[in-house]
Amino acid sequence: MKSILEYAEKKYCIQTINFSFIKLNRSKGNLRILSENQKILLETYCFAHYEPISISILIALYGGLRIGEICALKWEDIDLNNGIITVSKTVERLKNNDNMESKTILMILEPKTQTSKRIVPIPVFLKEYIQNYYDYLTVIDSSYYLLTNSEKIPDPRTIQNQFQRLCQDNNFQINFHSLRHTYATHCVMQEVDLKSLSEMLGHSNVSTTLQLYVHSSIEFKMNQINKISAPVISQN
Questions:
Q1: Residue 119, H or E segment
Q2: Residue 154 placed within a domain
Q3: Is residue 212 part of a domain?
Q4: 3-state DSSP call for residue 126?
Q5: Is 225 contained in some domain?
Q6: What is the mean pLDDT of residues 126-154?
């Protein structure tokens, strides 16, 4: 609507209509987590391939990074000796007002909140995969972006499209951001300290982590509820 009215202002000189005082609530939708079978299918592919989509999926699934944060990673942000990733930037596609030939442009920006700047530890097996990926590419400059191994900024849309195709090849459909939800949920099910998990996800408090990113599977809920002892029924 705003775009249509902006066009009408320029084309037909209609009066400017200000939308700045109108606030619409965002719908978060019904984000899901991967089923165990879907998770295995993706892992099997990723660990067998050294490709941008593979390393993107694994960092999201076992580090909880957002897609823009993954695209902004440079090799210098990954400390393989200590097994940590430093998150300090994000990639976003913004409207380009300077060049009419390109409507949008990729920009390196600060993360959406101050707490999104963080250090994320990664499991040993992911560290080993990244080391093998590094050796496979023969990285020559640590200032290169992880996903392009060059100065070219990776496009989140490209990763999202590749992810969708990979999911379709395996006969399921899910959003890339669901990998972050899956990471958080599995950490909780594995009894990872909630305060530590909240910091690794870049949240300001634990309640955000629990409310937005934890979705127990029905199998996990069944296992939990079956911990309840059967009642002792008197025979009298």
A1: strand 118-121
A2: yes
A3: yes
A4: helix
A5: no
A6: 96
The residue among 192, 190, 201, 197 whose CA lies nearest residue 223 is 190
Whether 10 maps to a domain, the answer reads no
Residue appearing with tokens 């951001």: 177
Radius of gyration, CA atoms only, the chain: 22
Closest CA to 45 of 63, 33, 35, 58: 58
- What does the pLDDT look like over 63-104, one tens digit per residue? 999 999 999 999 999 999 999 999 999 999 888 876 666 788
CATH code at position 61: 1.10.443.10
Q: Which helix (H) or strand (E) holds 8?
A: helix 2-12
Q: Which amino acid is at 21?
A: F
Confidence of residue 226 (pLDDT cuts 50, 70, 90): confident
Q: Is 191 left (phi over 0), alpha (psi -120 to 50) or beta?
A: left
Question: Strand ranges (DSSP E) for 62-103?
Answer: 78-79, 84-87, 90-95
pLDDT band of residue 167 (cuts 50, 70, 90) is very high
Which residues make beta-bridge pairs with 108? 91
Domain that holds residue 114: 30-217
Query: In terms of C-beta density within 10 A (0-12 exposed, 13-18 middle, 19 or more buried), how is residue 93 classed?
Result: middle
Sign, CA dihedral 7-8-13-18, equals negative
Q: Which residue is it, tokens 């023969």?
A: 138
- Largest pairwise CA distance in the chain: 89
Q: How many domains does the chain have?
A: 1
> Taking the model in full, what pTM does it have?
0.78
Distance CA(52)–CA(71), nearest Å, equals: 10
Q: Residue 89: what pLDDT? A: 96
- pLDDT at position 28 over 60: no
